[in-house]
Each structure stands twice: as structure tokens, then as C-alpha cells.
Amino acid sequence: MIRLHGPRRARLALCALLALEGCDATGRRYVEVTLQAQGAERAPFEVDGWTVELARADVGFGPFWLCATEAASPEFCDAAVLELRQTVTVDGLDPLPDAVATLNGITGTVRSGMWDYGVSWLPTASRARFNEGAPEGHSLVLRGVASRGSERFAFEADVDLAPPMAGALVVRGQRVAAHDVTEGPDALTVRIDPRLWVQRMDFERLAARGQDPVVLRAGDPDHEALVVAMTAGALPALEWARP
Amino acid sequence: MSPVLRTVRVVLAAACLAGPCVVAVACPASAQDAPVPERVPPRLIEAPDPAYPTSHHGIAIEPVVQLHVTIEVDGHVGEAHVEHPGDPEFDAAALETVQRWRFSPGMRAGVPVRSGVRVEVRFHAPPPEPTAAVSADAASDAGPAGSCGEAPCGTPPAVAVPTPDDHGHPPEGTDPEPPTAEPPTAGSAAEPPTAGSAAEPEAHFGAHATADPTRAHDPRSASEYRLDRAVLDLAPHRDAGDLLSSAPGVYVARPEGDAVAQQIYLRGFDAEHGQDIELTLGGMPLNQPSHIHGQGYADLGFIVPEVVRSLRVTEGVYDPRQGDFATAGSIDFDLGVRRRGVQLRTTYGSFDTLRALVLWAPVGEPEETFGAVTYRRSSGFGRNRAGQSAGALGQVVLGSGAVRGRLQASLWAARYALAGVLRRDDVLAGNVDFLGVYDDPSARSQSALSARGHLGGTVEVRGEGGAVGELGAYVQWSDFRLQANYTGYVEHSTVNPDWVGRGDLVEQRNEALTLGLRGRYRAPLFRPFAWARGFVEAGLSGRVDSTGQAQNLLQAPQNETWDRRVDASLRGVDLGGYVDLDWLFAEVFHLRGGVRADALFYDVDDRLGNARPAFRRETYIVGFRRSAAGLAAGPRVSLEVTPIPALALSFAYGEGYRSPQARQLQDGETAPFAKVRSGDFGIRVHAGDHEELTLAASGYMTSVSDDTAFDPREGRLERLGPSLRIGGAVHAVARPLRWLTGAVSVTYVRATLEAPPPPSIDDPSPPYRAGELLPYVPPWVVRADVGANERLFDLDGKPLRGRMGAGFSFLAPRPLPYGLLAEAVSLLDVSAGASWDALDLSVEVMNVLDARYAGVEYSYASSWAPDALSSRIPARHFAAGAPLTVSVTLGVTL
């Protein structure tokens, strides 16, 4: 036996009243979509002859909007399809997809996305601030060890990716495969592979600093390499899947 | 009666109305306890026939002129005036005739008293001229020889019939002449006249004989309605715009306060502030082309509801006289005041609302002559809704013969604060009260100011054979300023990209000056055959509009401008003309129609056009001046078939247009009018000797080539593409008892978007899809009005009348952008009142069930939490409708 709960019963009654309106055919609905995060394998990997083993790669992801337009930007995405109005910490070294949040929105077609990495600059604010949920108040907290033969040093990077101006976002216009968001079960997986970011670093240069650990700060070329990789070169992958 | 004594009686009457205990003290001889004295109505005992105007010989005009006359105690006719003036010559002849009539006076307790009754003077055409063709026609019309009634053949007979009033009441002293008014007993005065009646022509010449031989005043389709005061008075109405609620398929809201025009829904159209309805006041256009807040913006706030005599609602485009903005239809306000004298009315009610009205309708002048002054203030039904308005509206009719003129003028202004829109999720979360306003400087700075004035006049010349020439001119001025924040904190400055987050307080300004002319000429009746007759009419209209407008973003509360969106001057010229045929065949087929064409010219000075982005080097001066022109033309035709007098079938088709917003035109562009094609078929049924039941049912289809909808981001209308509406309507008015009247209408429409704009660089994620229901259009609109008005008893020798009324409106859920649905609206308004002598007391309760409803609802993304991450998901927003509102009105007529 099919039991109808109050809201559905009310909706059916409404549709009966508006039978000729075809409300089921044209209406869009508020939906919730599971957001999953998936990191990379923790196994060591090679970078220009150096063996790099990451101990920690926590990424602050969000806020995040998925838009109908082919190239999302705040100017061209007044109305989004799905959104995450918070920041979640993604363990970049956990290869198993975990449900980390719920996206809210309406049914429709998604073609692009835009987001911040845990640091946002609100239109009304005088400067960018990190959001609750950002790992230790940063966009990326990276810890690892690089070794080559007898050479070995640890490195650390706390990366803050702030939008360039008030009301702007760090990553805009990231295209995703067109996907129809429906009322059916759906999930979006954000795949973050910190190894791709680390591969942009110059470990020869880091080793030459003779520090252990090597602490990357804003302005360091390798810090900038991480920034470029996170915002342009090796963006997280967005993939749709059933939860 | 001396003024002193009269004042005493008024005071005593007020005391009687104050309550039973007061009555016990102040009214020792309560009329309720007194025996009802015998009342005898006046009787017509001598009614000489009217003289048929010689200028109208040769045409088959057989008009009926309705008059209100006062019968003095000696039986002669005192004051008399025509209730609905038509042909001046017939009106004059009727007035002259009734002065010669004699009555036996009304009696009360055996004493003659002064009485007021309504009478009709029916003119019958004299024998035809002795030409072969006309003789045949006349013979056909006049019937067999000897059927001239009691009047000698060859002499135009007259019928004098005390008639029921618009409520279906028998003739009473609805306009009693204080202090000695003594209307005849209800019902008894409807007895047939006793002399000179020649009653049989009613059947012989047809009960529908009017001043127009082609019955031009009949509706052109089953979707055309005339709502007289009897229907408009059934339920309480908040203002003149709210009177439209009584029309089938119409729903009126005023979600932006009393300084912003009403939002009107008409038969499948969200006409916003008038973009799809041609609104006129006695024929003078009220819509403002290219208004910054919405194309065709028309604020009805300046119209004093008490002076609205009737509404003519034409749903569809079937009359060549219908011009710009008549995409959904046309509504004309006809002004007149039946009750003569000086009326003082004061209303006080919920939310510290006070309204005062002084209405002067000089005794002895036509109904159309009056002057009214109003003032209103209110604290509003929630925070940030206070304001006040004041206005004056007057009209004078000059002349009463073949040349008749009318002058009309108004001046009105209003300023109200606005609470604006709220997100439904914020209300549900308890962040803001349903009737509240965001606790934000930008939200609290919302307000509107509107001011307008006009001066207009017409001269009408009536010639022989039903020929009519009319020439009118008007000048209108209006000023509009709105501060409204729809989206909170999402806008960016285009002047300086670094300026963001200062609040989206949109400032719109619009100042317009309009000069207009209109004229028409109807040729004398042409009757080529005995079974065919008709008129040909041609008309011209022209207007020049000069508009200055601006739109900015303001930072509250200092109102510092942080972005400029519009700064433009617009000039527009609209020249229109039409030809209309009005032909009646075999008394059964009524064919009307013609062609209308309008040529429009635009000159646009867009001072912010060719805007230069902030990052671009300055290589030119910002600004974009352009001109454009276009022509809109289309046919309108209707056919009404009347197989029996009580039944009429109608078919109608017409093409109308809506002019474009001038600022959206490109240089040299052929002005892209929104073309509307409208088809309608229907049936009208009348039942009862006095039309106790009238029923109209119609089906219709309307396509619009370029529809629009409100865009909250810009606070104005934006294009939607073509749309299609298919629907039907049923409207019934019943007067089952002489004191009871009811009206009900049900309108259904399926309105769909055919091809909404595809994604573009300006709007890459449009909210609409092909096949979706048109946003904001309620598929079902139901309206029911019921009213009772009866003489209850006599008090101090004068009748005390009581009345009750109720109005119910239902709107089915309206589709919103992004496929969402608004909530249904059900509203019930009731009123009760009593009148005695010169006093009138009424209580009105609007929204008696205290429903929490949205006056208007939208769907878009906004951010009202500037210190939090903003949402970009479209959310439902609404502007609250008024809650339970009680008001008491005390009126005195001097």
C-alpha cells in the first residue's frame, strides 16, 4: 500500500486542482544532493627524483556554487542550481569517498561551478576572512616529507587563498559535465588530489634552503606554485554519482 | 426646516445610532415602536407625450431616457434630471415632457408628502417619410396599422414608467431631498401608470429600444462587462483600483503601498501596474508608456472611489477604439455622483488609518458634475508602512443641448514607506515577522512618492441622424520616485567594481508630461435596406510623451549614490486612427468591427548608453542617442447573434498591441510592438422581467508575441518571449429578491511560455523554459459578491435603510520563475451599514479571516544577511498583504 504523507498529499491535491496546468511537467523542485569528498592515496610518490610522502593534506572547500551557465562567475550566476554555503574540510589523503555535506538547490541543469577554499571576502567586508570549517583557518594545510637517498626534509605549507576583491570568488568558471539535477538520488563527488599540487613544487629549491622543516610562506615561489595549482592548474574534479 | 432644528435632528440621529442605551435616553419616541403609518406611492395621472425631435426624423431612433424626478406635494414635478445622459436633444425633450406630467402625490398617514421616483420617457419614431424605401422600413418597424397605442397615429407616443433602480429596487426616494423626503412604499410605486401609458409599445417596439438604433452600447463580446454602482457597492472596496476586483477574472493587489500603482491580474495576464490593460478615465488614457517601473504604468490612486459610477471592462481586443496596452483588455472608469449635495465622510480604522472626504455634487446639475477632495494617512499594518496622501478630483458638464462639454481635472500626491519583500525562509526561521521589515538600513529606507495631475476636456456635438462628433484634449503630469530593495546585498557597482555590498536599494525616478488629443465622428445612420442599418465611425488619437527617468543604487541611510544604471530622456509620439462599423441585420445579427493602426515614434537620449567598463581606457564620451519608429495595425471584429431577446451568442476576434519600452530600442529599429491576437466566443443570457439573472460564459484564446515579467534584480519588467493563453470565464449576476443582489465569476486560464529567451551573455541562466506556465499568472480566479440593501423601519418619519455586503476573492497558486508555485490567496471582506436621513454609518472589515497572504510573490536569489555567505538559490519572496482591517465610516450629506 502506498501511503502519502501530508506534503505529498497536498501536492497531489494541488496538481489535481491544476490538472490542466501540467505542474508535474514544468515545475522545478527544491532538492538536496549529497556532496562527497575523495582524496588521493597516501602512498609515496615521485617528484623530480624526490620521494614525497604526505602526512597531512587538509583542504578547506567551499562555499561552492553550481550554475547552469557554461562559465560560472558571480556576475553570470545570479541564480545557482546547487550551493554549499559553508566550508568543509576535505582530507586529501583519504581515497574513499565520504559524504561531507549536503548541497541545497533546485532541479535543473548544471554546467559549471565556482568556489572558495575556505577563505571568503564578503561583499560587505573590508577584507577576506576564513570561514568556519576551514582547516586551522587556512585553505590548505599541507605536511609532508621529501627524501632522496640520504637527503630528507620535512615541509609545511599553510596556504590562504583569498578572493582578489570583495564579492569575488577564488575559482570561477570551472566547467563540469552537463548534468540534470533531479529529485532522484544523486551525489556529487569532489575529488582532490594534493599530489598534483605538490608536483608543482621545486624540491631541489626547497632542499637548498637547508631547513627542516621547510616552511612555505606566502611569496615563496613554491607557495605560489601551490596557489596556481589549486586555482588553475589542478583544480578538483567534480563527478556525479549515485550516493 | 430651520438649520438649527436640522442640526438638532442630525445630532439626535447620531445619538440614536450610538447604541441602544443612548436610544432609550435620546429617542423617547423610537420609531421602532411606533405604528407604521400608511404609505401611498405617487401615481402618474397625466402624461402628455413627448415631442419627437425634428432633427431626428427619418431615422429609427427610439430611445428611452431615464430620469429621476421629485414629485411635490401638489403632484407636479419639481426637480428632474437625466440619469444617464445620451442624445442631448432627446434628453432635453424628456426633461421638458416630464415637467408637464402630473401625479397624485405620495401620501403618508393621509398627508401628501414629497417623493422621488424614477421614470422613463420612451420615444417612438414618427411615421416615415413618404419615400418608397423608407416607408417600407418604417412599416416594418412600426408594425401593423393601428398599433400606435393610445396616442394618435402619427404622433410619437411616450411611455412613462416608474422604474426600478440599479439595485432592482422599485422606485424609491434614493435621493430623498432632506429634510422632508418621503419616498413611496417600496414595491407599490412600481405599479403601472394609470394614464397615458401606452404600455403595449414595450412589446411592439421591442424592450431593448435605446438611444442607439444599432445597440452600440451592447457588449462586443461575452467578455465585456459593465459594472454599475449596484454591483460595485455589494462588497467593500479599499480604493478605486480595488473596485476592479468585482470584474470577472480580475484580481487587484497593492503590495508596494499606496504610493505605487496597483498590481492587476486580468484573465491570464499579470498586467503588473498596467502594462497589459488599457486604463482610461472617461476615455482619457492613464497608462504611461516607457515608465521606469513598468511599461504602461498606471496609478489609479488619484481616483476617488465614491465618484466612480460604473466600470466598463473589456476583456480582449475587439473594439477598434482600444489602443496601446489593450493586450489583455481595457477598463474605463465612468465618473458620476448620483446622490447630490455635499457629502462629508470620515473613516477611521485599524493601524491609525484616517480618511476624510468632501464630495460636492451640486443639486440640479448632471451626475457627472462634482468635486471631491480626499486626505488619507495611516501608520500601516506593520513597520515601515506609514504614509499619507491627498488629492482632488473634479468634473463639470457644460451645456445640455446638441453641444455638450465636459471638463475634468485632478491633482494628487502620496508618499508611503515600504516594507518591501521578505524571504519566506527568513519568515519561517523567525528572522523577520510576516508583516515586518528587515532590520537593515537599506530595507528601512524603502519608500515611494507619487504625484500626478491632469486637466482634460471634451466637446461633443450631436447632429441629425445620430451623427456625433467629439473632440477631446488633455494634459497629464506625473512624478514618481521609488526606493526599493528586492535583493538585499548582491549587486555590484558598474561605475567602480570595488564598490560592492552597499545594499541594493534601487532608486527609480520617472517624470512625465503628456499632451493628448482625440476625436471621432460618427456619420448619420445609414439604412440601405429594411433589414439592415448601421453607423460608420472614424476616430483619431494622438499623444506626445516627454519622460525623464533614472535608476540608481543608493547606500542607506545617507542615500549616497553608488551606482548609476539609467539616466535617460525619452520622447514619444503616438498617432492612431480607426474605422469602426456598427451594423444590425434583421434585428438578429449585430456585426461590428474595423481596423486600427498606430504609428509610434521615439527619440531616446540614453546618457549612460555605450557604458565604458571601469578598466577600459577612455576613448569616447559615454552616451547613446537614438531614434526609432514603428507601425502597429490590426483588425477587430465581433458578431453577436440574438435569436431571442434573452439570449445572445457572440464571436469576436481582434489584434492589438503593446508599445515597446523606448529605452530598449536600437537606433533605426522598427519598433517591436508586442502583438496580441485574441479570440473569444460566448453566450449571454438574461432572465426575468427586470433581468433578475444575467449569465455570461465565454471561452477565449490570446497569444502575445512578446510578453514580459517583473525582474526583481532590476526592479522592472523584462522580456519573456511569446506566450499563449487559453481559458474560459463564467459570470453571473442575480437579483433574486429586490433587496438582494449577488454576483459571482470564475475564470480559468492556461498561460504558457512558448519560447522564452535562450541563455545569453547577459542572462546565461534564464529562469524560464519553453512550455512552462507563465509566471505570476493565477490559473483560477474566483470572485463572489453579495449584498443586501433594504429599508428596515422608519425613524422620526424617515426611513432607516440597512445594508450588508461581502466580497470573496480566490486566487489559485501562481506559477513563479524557476518552476516554483506561490501560495493560494483567499480573502473575505464584509461590510454593514445604515443610512438615515442625511446620515450614513458603515463598518468595513477587510480580510475578515485575518489570512496571512502574499500580495505578490516572486522567486529569485537574494542575500539579506550581509555578514554571512549569501545564497544564490532562487527563493520565494513575498510582500505581505494587509491583515484583518476594520474601519468605521461616518458620512453626512448636506
Separation of the first and last Cα atoms of chain A: 27 Å
The CATH architecture classification of the largest domain in chain B is Beta Barrel
Q: Strand tally of chain A, please? A: 16
Percent of residues in beta strands of chain A: 35-45%
Query: What is the global morphology of chain B?
Result: globular
Describe the structure.
The complex is a heterodimer of chains A (243) and B (894). By secondary structure, chain A is of the alpha+beta class. Chain A has one domain (29-241). Chain A is 16% helix and 40% strand. Chain A contains five helices and 16 strands. The radius of gyration of chain A is 21 Å and the shape is globular. Chain B contains eight helices and 42 strands. With 894 residues, chain B is mainly beta. Chain B has three domains: 1-30; 39-204, TolA/TonB C-terminal domain (2-Layer Sandwich); 244-527 and 535-661 and 673-893, Maltoporin, Chain A (Beta Barrel), CATH 2.40.170. The two termini of chain B are 13 Å apart. In chain B, the strands form seven sheets. Chain B has a 22-stranded antiparallel barrel. A five-stranded mixed β-sheet of chain B has the order 9-15-16-13-14. Chain B has a three-stranded antiparallel β-sheet with strand order 1-6-7, with no helix packed on it. The longest helix of chain B is centred in the N-terminal third of the chain and has 16 residues, at 3-18. In chain B, α1 packs antiparallel against α2. Chain B is globular. Helix content of chain B is 7%, strand content 48%. Residues 1-37 and 129-211 of chain B have low confidence and may be disordered. Chains A and B meet through α2 and β7 of A and loops of B.
